[in-house]
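dumping this here before i forget
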Amino acid sequence: ELEHRLGRGNGNETFALGVMLKISSDPLAVTATGETTRVGLVATADYVLRRADDDAVILKGKVSDFTGYSYTGSTVETLAAERDARARLMTLLAERITTQLYSTPDLTAS
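structure:
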């Protein structure tokens, strides 16, 4: 998702972006019999933007967001719901990182 928003590198970049991603899942809804029916995904991305020529840190930060999916139906339906939820989460995190990068004053002057 970040490559889609920022472009893929070609070896001549001014900056290098590193991202460390952590995802956790927790049951959000549980029936009286103890069956999970909804799962929440929480993701945190720590990122560092470095100048490519000398590896100097230009910007670093942390973003987080959450989403959920239903844990009902067949295994195939649940796996598809989880995959879609993870994709939504990556879109949300990429949007937050991109917004912070674009809102950094004089980034190209660093």
